[in-house]
Each structure stands twice: as C-alpha cells, then as structure tokens.
## 1
Amino acid sequence: MHGLSFDLNTGVIAGRPPVEKRLSALAGCWVDPAAFARACATGDPVVYQVTSAPDEPGTGGLGYGLGCLFPGRVGDEYYLTRGHLHQRREAAEVYIGLAGAGLMLLEDERTGVCRAVPLAAGTTVYVPGHTAHRTINTGDAPLIYWGVYPNDAGHDYGFVGERNFRHIVVAVDGHPQVIDRAAYRPARL
Ligand code: ZN
C-alpha cells in the first residue's frame, strides 16, 4: 500500500465506502433517554461515518481510518461516537484533527479517571492503552480526524453498554460543559 487521497472537508477517502452510524444505532449512549426517543421520532440522521484504509496484514503494521462526526445534539448532549476500548488493551492510538472542533473523552478502565481533551483542526490526541475513548463534536461543522492504531488493536464496545463514560458533554446556555454523568438532570418542559 502506498497512500490514499482524501478530502479533509468532507472526510471521504477516494474509492473507499464510508461506514455510516445513524442515530438509531446509538441507543444506550445518551444521558437523556427521553431526548433520544424524541430525536429518533423526528428522523434518523447519520451521526458519524468512518472510512478505513485497507487492512495491512501482518505483525507490526498500522491501521488507520478517517472519521467524520457531524454537528448536532440529542437534548443537551452533543453528538458523540459510541466509543470503545481496544481488544488488545495495551494498544494505543493517535488522533489527528483536520477540521472542526470538539473533544475526546479518555477514561482509564483501571482507575476510572476520565479526562476531556480538545480535538480540533490542528491538534492531536494521544490515547494510551487501557483507555476508553469517545469523540464529541461541540462545534457547528463536521469534526474530521484521522485515527492511527496498531492493526491488531481491535474494538471492544462492551464498556459503553456496561458503564458508559463517567463524563458527558452538554450545552449549558449554548456552551459546552463537561460534567459528571451522575450530576446531570435534564430540564423538563
Ligand atoms: Zn480506538
């Protein structure tokens, strides 16, 4: 493999089909289930898409994929990716922000410590091993980024279903705030 051509404004890799993740496929990810039900009732938008480079088999290789997380909210909570741990827990990953603005939640599965770090055009985020990671778009435009990882890292989504992330990112007076999941109380009309 020699290289790929991609569009850093749309997050599309030439000749590679993106895998779309629609809102209905993200049940259980959101802090406000009632807001999720309302959002699903009004349509089923694509929340994000990932386009992966061809797998390079063999030990020592890298895998990489281009993510495009669209802007939006479910209730107060900004659009997010499901998030995952790596099946091979010690595998790290580097995210490279190309367009847009947002955050990553990094939660160490061993200590439970959760950090929110900026991911935006012109920034990188290093995700250590044993760290669940989720991307969040807090801006008005698509958040586009590369993820680069050992090709045998694998994905483990069980973390999200079992305990989800400790922190959430919600709009308070129109501005993103990172708060503890347990502290959130949705406003009711
Ligand atoms: Zn990963």
## 2
Amino acid sequence: MGVKLGILGFGTVGVGTVQLLQDGIGRNPLLQEIEICRVGVRSLDKPRPVTFSDRILTTDLEAIVTDPQIDIIVELMGGLEPARELILQAIAHGKHVVTANKAVISRFGDEIFTAANQAGVYVMLEAAVGGGIPVVQPLKQSLSVNRIQAITGIVNGTTNYILTRMQTEGSDFADVLADAQKLGYAEADPTADVDGWDAADKIAILASLGFGGRVKREEVYCEGIRQVSQTDIAYAEKLGFTIKLLAIANRVDKNTPSSHSAPPDLFVRVHPTMLPNDHPLASINGVFNAILVEGEPLGKVMLYGPGAGAGATASAVCSDIMNLVARIKAQKASDTNTELILDPLFACSHEQYSRVTSIDNLVTRFYVRFLTKDEPGVIGKLGTCFGNHEVSLESIVQTGLQGEFAEIVVVTHDVREGNLRQALTEIEQFPAIHAIPSLLRVI
Ligand code: HSE
C-alpha cells in the first residue's frame, strides 16, 4: 500500500515536485511507493505542464488537509495565511507535513512544532532554506554532535545575483535590479529579497536548528542591499574585499559553552558585509547559495549549491517526503496501532528560546565612508572623536574628491558597534561633515 500525498499549491516548486515524483527511474526506490492523491490549486482552469487523472486537482484545500486517507501534506503555497492555518489543520488531523515555507516556519515555528510534537507527527522543512542544498537535516543530525559556534550564509540568490553583477559590471543597484526583474531573477515586488527579510527568515530557522533554541523572527537584525553603492564596491575591490549580503548567527561568547539546560545567547543578523577575497563565501556568485557552519571539534564546513528553482527545491521537498515514507512504512510494518514515537533527529523538539543580543554589543570591524568639506583638521577631528569612544582605527585615508567634497574612508579594528554609532552621531554634527553615505561591517 502506497503512502498518500496531498499537495497544497502547484506553482513552480509544486510542478517540479510532481515531475520528480513521477519520474522515479534512477532515484531512490522509496519514491515509487508514493501516490499523489490530491493537489490543491487556486483555479481548475489554468493550463498546466502536468496532467492528472480525474478528481486529483481541487480548489478545496481544507478537504485535502482533513482527508482521512492522506498521510503527508506537502505545503508549497508560500505566504503566511492560509498556509499556517492549513498546516495546523493537517497536524490536528494526524498528518505529517513537508513545507518549503520559511516565512511561516520562522514566524510560527513555535506554534507549529508544539502542535506537531503533541500530535506525534513530523514537520519537515529542508526546502525552506538553501533550496536544494541539504542543510536542515545536516544541522539536525550529522553536524549536531558539534558545539556550533557560527552559521554564516549567503541564503538569498536574488541579492547575490544583484551584488555579483554590480561587482563584475560596475553597474548600479537600481539598473541591475531592473534588469534582473526583466530576466525573471528578481520578483516584481523585490522587497522581501532586497531588504533582507527572506534571508532573515532563513537565518532564524538555521539558528534555531544549530543552537538548539527557538529564535524570535522579530529579533533578527536586518539590513538589505539597497544602500550598497558602486562607490563602495569599487573601494571594497581596492581594499581586497567583496561585498555580500550575509546572514549570520553566532554565539555571543564563543569560549563559554552554554549550560545543558539553556541555549546560548546569540547575535542573529542580516546585513551587507565586506569580506576578504580569500573568505570561502567571497567566491559564491550569481544565484548560488552557501552556508558555512563552524563547530567544535569539526571546524568549518561549507554547503554550496542552487538555492532556488523548481528542480533544486523539488529535490529538497522530495528528500523530506522520502524520509517520511521510510518512517511511515517502518511504523506500518511494525504495528499499525502503535503511535509513532518521534525521532529526535527528525523532530524539532526544543522549547526554550535563545536570547538574541542587541547588535550594539557586536564587536566587529567597520568600513565607514564620509563626505566632508576639504579643509585642514577634518581627519584629525574624526580620529579624536573615534578615540574618545574607544574606536580604534586600522586606516583612515582621504581618497579623492566627489564633486566639491572630500571622500574619507575609515576602516576600524574590532570595536563595539554601540561605541562606533555613538561616535558617528557626534561626527554627524561636525560642521565639516556633509554626509556619511556608507557603513559596512567587515569580517
Ligand atoms: N527568493 C529567494 C532567493 C528564493 O532569491 O533566494 C526562495 O527562497
């Protein structure tokens, strides 16, 4: 007897998933045990690249999640509602769930996993982060024997594509974005990608998995790439750096293991970052994603691959389905009346929250660009003000003129962000300062 699927949503990833499931040759034989029972769509009239036998397509999504014959619900609709509500209904009806929905999981993970653990079902989310890159299961399983220190990722393909083209072509953000939209690499409404929200959803999920404590999505610090200018990209290049939108979760105190009972305090953040050209993430270009996991004793592991697209995301969705099929079959073979005992390597069972520390306490290097009047003493005043706030400088140079203003670029040593910001608040008031157009963290 096959394992029965109900699929919610039949867009790009839904089509990719069905096509993969219908073409089992050369793939894991467990995929052949799957029967697609219902596919929920918005409209029955739309032409589709896959044809189904009668009664499989339906617009009644609630009938799918409550259908007693269905074992697994695959949620590929995206968006917050009705996806959240349908996932909860599926759980309440004893169904396992596979979802690619990072927005729902990062915001309502506590509600969803609490319900799933009580109902004794799994909610699987490999496709929610990194598209086809296996990163969720590795964090739950093989990497989890390590004490994770940091997870640093390029987890948004759209912004990486834009930054890569800005760097290679010398073009401005707005021009590359418009072209990326024309080519279909960026959405018509690019907000979630270019403002960093998509990456923030993903790092909240990765941090929860890696550090064993839930992360409140609203506590993730988030800056996007709209402010990254061609001028900064050119400076970065001169200084031997590349600018990438990084999503980072790291321990506040990397030397002190947290207690057995509490997850560690974390910094969780998304921002454009200058990274040295020899950093492993500096060479991840175009729409590709990569996630660098640092743990003790393992050291560094980087997972790299296609972060979006029908086939890649379908690979992640189907790997979750396959894992569930194996478990459902084993349970059916043992005793149909026994409740499934959740495997801790598959479930998300942590209930405590990691404390997310204010970015003011982050200690890192910074790049700051100033436009100032070109007159004696400006560099001296900047240096004095930084010194008063314990901001130690690695370099300060006047690089030339931008129109009538002198351009001054500062790179700091490791400093506390709060101190740097206090210094900048004072510096902004100096009569010689015209603007501070750029502030970038450097790793
Ligand atoms: N919009 C995402 C990206 C893909 O640009 O990477 C889906 O997670």
